[in-house]
Write a structure and sequence with these properties.
single chain, globular, mainly beta, two-stranded antiparallel ribbon, about 60 residues
């Protein structure tokens, strides 16, 4: 289960998925408007990127 990097809420509903090179990406949107992207390599989480909707630019984050 992925947690929101901004508020710590559990995120279970995937907004969208896509393939990015060797990664499978899952995007989650929290009710606090934070977007969390989970990058999976071989089915295991590799890293997370996050931002606040409307603020632009993603940065590496550690989900709470």
């Amino acid at each position: 289960m992925v947690r929101c990097w901004n508020c710590g809420k559990d995120l279970s509903k995937v907004n969208r998925t896509w393939k990015y090179g060797i990664f499978d990406v899952k995007e989650y949107i929290c009710s606090c408007n934070a977007v969390t992207r989970e990058y999976l390599k071989n089915g295991k989480p590799s890293f997370y990127l996050g931002n606040i909707k409307g603020k632009g630019g993603f940065k590496k984050v550690n989900p709470k």
